[in-house]
Design a protein that fits this description.
Elements: E1 4-7, H1 13-24, E2 28-33, H2 39-48, E3 54-58, H3 64-70, E4 77-80, H4 95-123, E5 127-132, H5 145-165, E6 170-177, H6 184-188, H7 205-216, H8 225-235, E7 244-247, H9 249-261
Helix pairs in contact: 1-8, 4-5
Amino acid sequence: MSKKILITGAGSGFGEAAALGLAQNGHDVIATVQISPQVTPLREKAKSLGLSNLRVEKLDLLDPYDVAHAQTFDIDVLWNNAGIGEAGPVFETPLDLIRLNFEVNVFRPLGLTQAFVRQWIKQGKRAKIVFTSSMSGLFSPVNWGVYAATKHALEAIAEGLHQELAGHNIKVQTINPGAYFTGFNETMADTPFRWLDEEKNITRRADLREQFDAALSSPFGHMDAKEMVARMIEIVPSDTGHFRNVVPAAVEEMLQAEQLTAWIRQI
């Protein structure tokens, strides 16, 4: 059954690829992008594929006018996919950057979600909310703790909404990608080097770079994103499925083992 789907953060990576794929599968897609220069390229891609059912709009979650405009859209599925990443040691990351990461990844998606939920309940409409979480929503790897904290928060919010909205016929899901190669993690790994000052900070720049390089070059750090996109295209419009969706299976198994060890980990 065709759905009307609003995707945030569709200007690149998973969001862009999945927006095109969902439209190719016959859904009416509103693909929103953060900045104006991303609008025309995505429109041109949709046009080249003959996708008249893919509409591209600018939606910067920090822009109140963009957000107000987005709330006028008639949709069945809100996919909160947009996000940013702040990496580096938690004990040294500037608090204003941590606040910004929570603002973009947690508070603004929640605000948009609340607005649509109110509309749907008033309309008595069956609808769905999807959050792009992360494997980092279920554990906190070293030097990725700030980003992981925002995704942990999303997990808690999604679980609360899942229970609260069941009686209103509004479904809630999370998608938890592993470290697929989209460029997002690589870009996030650069973020601390814009503030890390060895005259002020304890962390050494060379040590941090070595740790990031090791993490990103591991088998779990450089996977082909096509697998994840294919699963997203299945999950987002579906009326059934698991609440939490970790991909690939090997990462799901690793996370389950990690969560078990948390109960016996010694300080």
